[in-house]
Amino acid sequence: MSAIEIVFTILLNIIPILVISIPYFFIKKKIIGKLYGRILLGIIVFYIVYWVLPIVFQLETAPIELELQSGEEGNTALGVGYIVSHFLSLISLFGSYPLVTLPFIFLVAPFISIILVWNRLRKEKSPTKESLEALTYQLTESPYNRIRDELKKSDWSREKEILKLLIVLLPISLFLLQLILSITNLETVSLTGGETALGWFLEILFVYLATFIFSIELLFSSQIALKGRYFGESIRTQTYKSLYTVGAPISVLSIILFIVDAIQKGTTESITIIIYFFAYFIMASVIFVLFLKIFEPISILIFIKIIDWWKHRKQKKKAFDTKNFYYGIVFACLAFFIYFVLNYVLFYPVYRFIFPNYQIIQDSAKFIAPSVTLGNSLGFDVMNIFSFITLVIASLALAAFFLVLCFKYMRSILTAIVSYLPVLIFLSALFVSLELYALIYLSPDTYWITGQTSYTTIFGFNFYTLRTAGLEADLRGVFFFILAVPYTYTRYIFNIIIWGLIIHYLRKEFKTKNLKVDDKHLEKLIFSSITDFITIDDYKKGDIQYLISKSENITQDAVRSEREEVQSLLNSLEQDKLLKELIPFEEKEKQRFYFTLKYLFSNDFIDILKPEFSYVFERVEKQGLYIIYDDGRGVFDYSFVREVVHDAGLVSGMVSAITSFIKETTKSQDLLKTIDHGDITIVLEYGKRIFGALFIKGKQTSEIRAKLREFVERFELKYKTVLEDWSGALVHFKEDHSMVEEIFQE
Description:
Blueprint: H1 3-21, H2 24-27, H3 31-52, E1 64-67, H4 76-122, H5 128-133, E2 135-136, H6 143-153, H7 157-183, E3 189-190, E4 195-196, H8 198-221, E5 225-226, H9 231-265, H10 269-290, H11 292-311, H12 313-318, H13 325-354, H14 358-364, E6 372-373, H15 374-410, H16 413-433, E7 447-456, E8 463-473, H17 478-488, H18 491-505, E9 510-516, E10 521-529, H19 536-541, E11 547-550, H20 556-560, H21 564-571, E12 577-578, H22 579-582, H23 587-602, E13 606-618, E14 621-629, E15 634-639, H24 648-666, E16 674-677, E17 680-686, E18 690-697, H25 702-718, H26 720-724, H27 737-744
Helix pairs in contact: 3-10, 4-8, 4-11, 4-15, 4-18, 6-11, 7-8, 7-9, 7-10, 8-9, 8-10, 8-17, 9-10, 13-15, 13-16, 14-15, 15-16, 15-18, 25-27
């Protein structure tokens, strides 16, 4: 290669990345910019692994020529079209991760987490049913708000931990997989035959490994607690510690065995191939952690709704509504019919028009092909884009849209899924057996897309690139069939569920309300907003505890122009109230009140929310709150009970001394979280420069701990600059009583 060829090759290959990077610099400070930044980073990593790194294991192979046909010489438009289509094809391949691969992880993980919860409950001395009732969890904001808040924080600490753990486990996983392939007489990679087994099964292995790790992470992020103690945090810490302790030395040993194997074979080919698949695994891990905080809120919601169903399964079974079951069947048939019509009226005719010689294009896309033209290579990239739009985006959007309609009209997520998806699966299986287009793609992939070093003279010089090529995936053997089935035959189904739930909950607002059960217990209900006004039947029955909330966007001028009845009702909603607290006693007034509510709801004066889940927790008597600097100095204090006043200086010194003493004597790196003394409990939560100590009378609960954690986080965020180098002056913190009252109110 001449110097001019090297320069132009680099420029032409990097231009697409530079173009899609430009918008980020204009929107990077906005929420959409932070999301775009994650997607952009994922595309760049994907670009490097799929478009650059395949060169590593093709160094000894001469690049193939993308031949020009008669009249194509010097056709710059064709060259530019190839670069654009090739890059869009790469983005299509990247898009299959968040749209198809990751939904499997984020839907299956909550069910594995449930198994871990069940195993934890079995260890309790009390009966499982009693322990189950004692489970609490923290979910007080909608998935959308949680995603927005997490993106705002720009905290990558959890992502780094997960990525580090996946990388530690990578050599073990890869070595075991290669060993299994060797035992079963399957070649890992055969470039001469254009086949691969290792690459395809590496993707499946990564998905299973990521699912397990995220199921552990889910226990932590959901803040699930038993009798006030967050057991998910300890399970996560212990599991990670064990995997690091065992995994690190075995990973080193696995790498040594790879090198020894290469030396014995007298070739470096296996080493270069392993390097490439290491890079692929890391790329998949990076994409996973980049989208973690996008999908995690919906996984937490699924996890908690399963626990809530487990807790109230008897009531849920009795309340299982089958009268609207036909909605799911009708919507499934309608979705399938529309997709079938789109395929035969639009997609298929367009496909045959664009690709009259589609079989020739597909044959030329094989890694080992007699000859490849630039036009056919461009055609295969366009086919990838077209397939992604029709088989993934269009089918997913259509299926998810009708699933959301099922949620809306059936008002039960479980009933909607149970009635809707089986019909889609049955129709898809039937149409696949008849070799017709199906809405759900049930057949497993039998190829592995990669890049093959190539060049073309379309620009008047040798322009080197990596064309999109396919290696056939060898799926022989019962073991590999069993390994592949859970992933390959369910991922397209699971992505419909995940994206349906995301769309359903995307714009919903969540609110909480505590109801008195008895003198010692409160019930916490978590509500989500509804988009359609409640039916007259639901209103009359009163089985559902709807919450009525005054709209935040309402203005005083708008209220003044309304009739007295409406003004009176809106004034009574300064605090959210249950519908049953507002309904009049007289039958005639009840009906009149229904239409008044409907008027207010239609004009956005009020929001109506329905319960998503609930749990009962023990009420505690709060006595004093103390914020302490990491060197033991008292920063802020607040007394909840006038009769009980502790000296802030003594409390700070005592708590600091106890925590230091226990840490020194036990040699433990874990932070002290609770101090019990008779009927008094001191709950501790830590920030970066401060920690909070809350004195309570009674047993600790996850509710009170969550409030303390929230206060510590907000306090430290508010006074971040002051606390970085605190002089000891207390004047900065005197006006925070309102924050205490806001956070700790029941």
